[in-house]
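[Automated response] Your request has been received and processed.

Submitted sequence:
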Amino acid sequence: MNTAKILLMVYAWLIVAVLLFFLGRIAYFYERTSKQRVGYPLLLLPAGLLLGGAVWYILNDVEFAARPLGDLLLFGGGILLYLFDMRLQDLMTGERR
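Generated structure:
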């Protein structure tokens, strides 16, 4: 059972990593083609926080929730990722909503 849990966790985080990679590539492409400053290197901060939260949970071998440090790392990474995404969307759509 433990092996299945680890495999599912690795699979889920690989999907997150792939999505972050594509978001970074989209931001890089948009910055190069539109000549607008997007700040795509800032995507490394939320990626690092998400990675830190995932590693914290893996190293401490605890259930996935209700641990303040791991939760704060994941929450901070998620909020920063959301803010980056909303800024990129505003730039790409001409701030229409």
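Summary generated for your ticket: The two ends are 46 Å apart (CA to CA). The longest helix spans residues 2-34.
If you did not submit this request, please reply to this message.
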